[in-house]
């Protein structure tokens, strides 16, 4: 099914397309923003752009990072496209779906739920890894402007968990991964325990399949090509929701190399933090996508 | 009266201070955000930073440009401080104050009203040109970090009107001016007619004292040092709310030089537009503030 364009906005020389499309994974319409850099539509020789997927955090929509993350600044210089998906299905009207800000709507955790009533629509893993890229790369309007063989992934907070786990579960699907303040060990933090109990039930062995700290132990893909930034002033880090140290220790114990974990002095959990280091994360992806 | 700090947020190596202080101009507490670049507090040799005041548009608060304008990106590199005031008094509870999005609350137009009931609190011109800088430059915490002799001003839409008129009314107060999509001839557009009728009454001669297109005719300060960007996809431009061509024609007829008016192909009225050319506007101010 084609994408419907709700708005096209000029940004840093490129175009931000605000789109919606019907999803079979979620059974709902899904909003998604696509940024095409100027190189992908400049005449006379447009160049298909590699794609960096940005997964957003709890409470977010495709708008948050489009407006406040400033990934477009550096992506436009390098010729990199950006994809900003939503954080959950919207409008399924499941019982309790909008009762919490950290579970249900806007808190899909980028997994395919196995428990009722969530299992029928909360299938963000299938949506992000298969349905959305397939729809995009085969789209009549946008497909030709993108290089579907060169894709990287990144995210923030819950989206950092999403980026790390989808990367670790699918060797070769993405050329690199990066994260701001990721939920790095959801099986051991309150946010993750709440979400995984709801989406997967109480079998904690099942949870490990969706936990970056567990998944990294089985990584056999070589250099991890992972960049992670965490602010030392981040209250969620201080509260033990993020646990990046567990991810780092697990990687070290497993002999996995290529995880660059940086602690940024005084930065919080907000988009002010993301904006500050946005160029670094775009450069990280661009290097592994052959743009730098 | 001192400023009260509501939050301090790390941004691009500097600090964004979310402040509030009681204002005698408005008779209300006023929110204001101050960005201090790293150079202004780095040890061992902190350097007092020149200041760029950003006046925001209709419906905005100090948060909009702090989050979405991207001015901190370049200001942090150059050692420039940024000041984001609010767009009106808040909480006066005047009749009709919150009935419109383009008059009253969040629509103070950076003038001192002369008509009841607005004249007692809607005094944003006095607040921006005198009270706020005086309070800031004499403040025990922030004053020493700022160079009160080097100040420039800029703004967006209603704030572009504010920046241009306060600059033109006060030769020497600001080293330069710039604007995104400014209301350039408020006496001739619906937004301006509504606001000026309410704040000044129906005497259109009075209106001319607060209209950049009229004020530029009397400018005797030499090179205008003004940069204005307008997007050709801006619906408010197309509707005749901005009228930058009138400002340009008035300057030309008056023999005033130094107005650079650029039309940016396809850009709209949003912060996506501002973010794209934020570096240019910071560079413009920095050049006239001796930082470039």
Automatic annotation (TrEMBL), chains A, B:
Subcellular localization, as worded in the UniProt entry: Cytoplasm
Pfam family, one: Esterase
Tree of life domain: Eukaryota
GO molecular function, one term: S-formylglutathione hydrolase activity
Catalytic activity, reaction form: S-formylglutathione + H2O = formate + glutathione + H(+)
UniProt EC number: 3.1.2.12
InterPro entries assigned: AB_hydrolase_fold, Esterase-like, S-formylglutathione_hydrol
Coiled-coil features, chain-numbered ranges: none
Active site: 157 (charge relay system), 234 (charge relay system), 269 (charge relay system)
A GO term from the CC aspect: cytosol
GO process annotations (BP): formaldehyde catabolic process
Keywords annotated in UniProt: Cytoplasm, Hydrolase, Serine esterase
Protein family per UniProt: Belongs to the esterase D family.
Entry-linked PANTHER family: S-FORMYLGLUTATHIONE HYDROLASE
Function: Serine hydrolase involved in the detoxification of formaldehyde.
NCBIfam families assigned to the protein according to its UniProt record, in alphabetical order: fghA_ester_D
Protein name per the record: S-formylglutathione hydrolase
């Amino acid at each position: 099914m084609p994408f419907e364009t709700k708005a096209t906005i000029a940004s840093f020389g490129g175009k931000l397309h605000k789109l919606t499309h019907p999803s079979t994974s979620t059974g709902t319409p899904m909003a998604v923003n696509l940024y095409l850099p100027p190189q992908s539509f400049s005449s006379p020789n447009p160049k298909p752009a590699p794609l960096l997927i940005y997964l957003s955090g709890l409470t977010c929509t495709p708008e948050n990072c489009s407006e406040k993350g400033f990934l477009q600044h550096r992506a436009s210089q390098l010729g990199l496209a950006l994809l900003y998906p939503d954080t959950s299905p919207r409008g399924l009207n499941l019982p309790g779906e909008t009762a919490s800000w950290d579970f249900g709507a806007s808190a899909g955790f980028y997994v395919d739920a196995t428990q009722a009533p969530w299992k029928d629509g909360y299938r963000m893993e299938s949506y992000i890894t298969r349905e959305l890229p397939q729809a995009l790369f085969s789209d009549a309007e946008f497909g030709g402007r993108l290089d579907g063989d060169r894709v990287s992934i990144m995210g923030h907070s819950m989206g950092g968990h999403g980026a790390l786990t989808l990367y670790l579960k699918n060797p070769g699907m993405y050329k690199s991964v990066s994260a701001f303040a990721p939920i790095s060990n959801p099986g051991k933090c309150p946010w993750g325990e709440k979400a995984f109990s709801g989406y997967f039930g109480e079998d904690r062995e099942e949870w490990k399949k969706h936990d970056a700290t567990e998944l990294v132990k089985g990584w056999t893909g070589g250099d991890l090509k992972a960049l992670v930034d965490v602010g030392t002033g981040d209250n969620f880090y201080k509260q033990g929701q993020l646990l990046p140290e567990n991810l780092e220790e697990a990687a070290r114990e497993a002999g996995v190399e290529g995880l660059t974990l940086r602690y940024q002095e005084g930065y919080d959990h907000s988009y002010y933090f993301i904006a500050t280091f946005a160029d670094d994360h775009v450069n990280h992806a661009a290097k592994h996508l052959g743009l730098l």
